[in-house]
């Protein structure tokens, strides 16, 4: 029975690997091992707990305000001291974080096969998103099995020279997680959102946290949200990321505004319920780029470039950058023009049909079967 280590450290990786881990736990063909790097410890643990998952191994690399190279180095250092002892047959990494890069590199250096979920996303610009685009491309060079969420991402990999028989198009597991969240939605635990069922104002759900938004752009975004909240019949709800680089800029603008509700990051299922309740979503989060359009919510993406163009092409997401004027004008148009609103409010199925988990597990099982067959041929 192959033993497979999932190595990750951030909330989105946990959410997007959770359905696969839980399916593997029930599947006698595999033995999953969950390794948390602790890159974003608290948010990661909250997300995992919702899916009933506890890490088997904690690397606990988190330190306040550490640099990217410090995180990467600390993960690699801890992995290299332990990875051989786990007796694993493959490492699964997801997406494009520092944990993804360090996890893959450690596996490569110890000659352990690498399976990459959400492989092949490309913005086409190595400097943006930074450092995620570089992380994805680097990991692709040493990956043994690429699990691409969309046809486009598989084409990106083929263009870069990945072997066709090492790529499987699976759909994105985030859609599976969304389905699970919708079926298991609890009541809002957050008191500041308890009044939502009686809310008649239009709801704008907003968030911003990515590195490119830090500094001056974050001020622009905060000013836009304040201006929007001053429009008639609008309530802006902001689940705030824990990163101090975000909180220190945004909180002085948004606290104590009449039509703005700031809450701490929500547990995943509550956040999904909030997205379902939203009229529009304004965010620089990659998760929102997939989840908003999958739910048919018009999504204004606070970025100039994306590695997830499918929803933009389908018309449910729009890249609006980070200037106050553009964010306010695009959001106002959506809130005031019903035709424009209904043109954008169309669910997009480009990211998956909710069956990605089954395809991921099937592809991993086939990978091991082919691998075992090759090994026994060599032995004979
Ligand atoms: C800046 C950055 O590192 N971005 C990476 C991150 O994206 P991303 O920007 O999506 O990371 P987030 O921390 O926003 O996490 C998004 C996930 O968290 C959930 N959520 C959000 C708010 C909340 O209060 N509660 C909650 O559970 C969302 O539903 C979503 O599933 O992971 C993606 C998937 O690996 C990568 O492609 C991105 O490059």
Automatic annotation (TrEMBL):
Its EC number is 5.1.3.14. GO terms for molecular function: UDP-N-acetylglucosamine 2-epimerase activity. InterPro entries: UDP_GlcNAc_Epimerase_2_dom, WecB-like. CDD domains: GTB_UDP-GlcNAc_2-Epimerase. Residues 24-364 form the UDP-N-acetylglucosamine 2-epimerase domain. Keywords: Isomerase. It comes from the Bacteria. It catalyses: UDP-N-acetyl-alpha-D-glucosamine = UDP-N-acetyl-alpha-D-mannosamine. SUPFAM superfamilies: UDP-Glycosyltransferase/glycogen phosphorylase. It holds the Pfam family Epimerase_2. Belongs to the UDP-N-acetylglucosamine 2-epimerase family. PANTHER family: UDP-N-ACETYLGLUCOSAMINE 2-EPIMERASE. This is UDP-N-acetylglucosamine 2-epimerase (non-hydrolyzing).
